[in-house]
């Protein structure tokens, strides 16, 4: 199927507007999610399961491969993720306030480099509207693959009010999340990346942690696992400072990395975050660094540049417990997760 997609379907699809094709993909997933017999049949064929479930953050994952945030921004079709081979899925990024995102066009393909540049800016329906949609879905106990909810700052919210913005979204969506990812690293919301620094991050994560603990105490439930998603453009010294905060506040993990504002290849003039193959080395180097710096004690979700099985294997060998993809689907097709999950059954020592 991957070869058919690359040789036959992709050339046709790439003649169309990227965001239009994204909406088409969402509709296909929605159909798959809405028809239980179809969804179950696809899961039987495509969902690769490890011999023993992967246990992380107190959750169980059927395989290592997840769908990164950005595909299903409004929780419209995430239930179809296992039908396409994914062992977990992140929805969002979701903000407190509904927002349209940045002006279109805002997604650009670079096929010769297997890359995408996007400047979407968190378009989504807002936390309350998405929570109402999630109310209609099966409870956590019925899920085959864990659901992560990725939350970010609304564009209209000043930086010094960011903590209350994130806490509102956390409280609104907490009943539906198996885990949360805190997005402070997108390059497409003005000044958002400043939240990764010492002036804002301790307070921000501290307030989210307090909300999590307060909820757990009130309901008599375990706290929800929370991870932080960082940018690939940080220095190792900046990463060290972030890791210190995560350990101090007892956060559950880190997601490395988001898209990059750098342009390692000439000719990519569009503003926004770069993803795909050119990001591979940056994300791998950061995953390696975090794993070594923490002696493997902080779980890592590796994401960035996964457009083939080799890169997925390198991230796993570097210390990533889970791997996420998004741009890889654009270049390898809708069942790329199945290919990766099958490949990760084998050891990758010869690829390091």
For the structure shown, list the relevant keywords.
8-stranded parallel barrel, disordered C terminus, globular, alpha/beta, TIM Barrel, 37% helix, 3-stranded antiparallel β-sheet, 352 residues
How would you concisely characterize the structure shown here?
The chain is of the alpha/beta class and 352 residues long.
Written description of the protein model:
- With 352 residues, this protein is α/β, with parallel strands linked by helices.
- The chain has a single domain (2-345), classed as TIM Barrel, CATH 3.20.20.70.
- It contains eleven helices and 13 strands.
- The chain has helices at residues 2-13, 18-34, 36-46, 127-135, 162-173, 201-219, 236-248, 280-293, 309-318, 327-332, 336-343; strands at 54-56, 59-61, 65-67, 88-94, 107-110, 115-118, 147-151, 179-183, 226-230, 253-256, 273-276, 300-303, 322-325.
- The strands form three sheets. The chain has an eight-stranded parallel β-barrel, surrounded by four helices. The chain has a three-stranded antiparallel β-sheet with strand order 5-6-11, with no helix packed on it.
- A hairpin with a 2-residue loop joins strand 1 and strand 2.
- Helix 4 runs parallel beside helix 5 (162-173), helix 7 (236-248) packs across helix 8 (280-293) and helix 8 runs parallel beside helix 9.
- The longest helix is centred in the middle third of the chain and has 19 residues, at 201-219.
- It is globular and about 50 Å long.
- The two termini are 28 Å apart.
- Residues 348-352 have low confidence and may be disordered.
């Amino acid at each position: 199927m991957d070869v058919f997609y690359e040789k036959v379907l992709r050339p046709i699809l790439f003649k169309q507007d990227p965001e239009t094709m994204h909406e088409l993909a969402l509709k296909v997933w929605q159909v798959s999610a809405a028809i239980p017999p179809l969804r179950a049949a696809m899961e039987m064929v495509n969902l690769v399961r490890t011999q023993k479930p992967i246990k992380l953050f107190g959750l169980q994952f059927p395989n290592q491969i997840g769908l990164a945030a950005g595909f299903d921004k409004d929780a419209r079709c995430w239930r179809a993720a296992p039908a396409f081979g994914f062992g977990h899925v992140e929805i969002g990024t979701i903000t407190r306030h509904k927002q349209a995102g940045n002006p279109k066009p805002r997604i650009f393909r670079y096929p010769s480099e297997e890359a995408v540049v996007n400047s979407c800016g968190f378009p989504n329906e807002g936390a309350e509207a998405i929570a109402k949609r999630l109310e209609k879905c099966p409870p956590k106990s019925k899920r085959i693959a864990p659901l992560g909810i990725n939350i970010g700052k609304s564009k209209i919210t000043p930086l010094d009010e960011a903590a209350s913005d994130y806490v509102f979204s956390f409280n609104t969506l907490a009943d539906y999340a198996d885990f949360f990812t805190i997005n402070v690293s997108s390059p497409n919301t003005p000044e958002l990346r400043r939240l990764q620094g010492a002036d804002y991050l301790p307070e921000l994560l501290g307030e989210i942690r307090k909300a999590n603990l307060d909820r757990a105490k009130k309901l008599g439930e375990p706290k929800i696992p929370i991870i932080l998603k960082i940018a690939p453009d940080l220095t190792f010294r900046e990463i060290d400072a972030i890791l210190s905060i995560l350990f101090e506040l007892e956060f559950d993990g880190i997601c490395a990395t988001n898209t990059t504002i750098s342009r390692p290849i000439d000719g990519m003039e569009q503003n926004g975050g770069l993803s795909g193959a050119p990001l591979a080395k940056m994300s791998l180097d950061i995953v390696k660094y975090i794993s070594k710096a923490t002696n493997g004690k902080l779980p890592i979700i590796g994401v960035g540049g996964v457009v083939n099985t080799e890169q997925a294997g390198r991230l796993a060998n570097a210390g990533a417990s889970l791997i996420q993809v998004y741009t890889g689907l654009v270049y390898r097709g809708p069942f790329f997760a199945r290919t990766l999950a099958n490949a990760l059954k084998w050891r990758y020592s010869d690829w390091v």
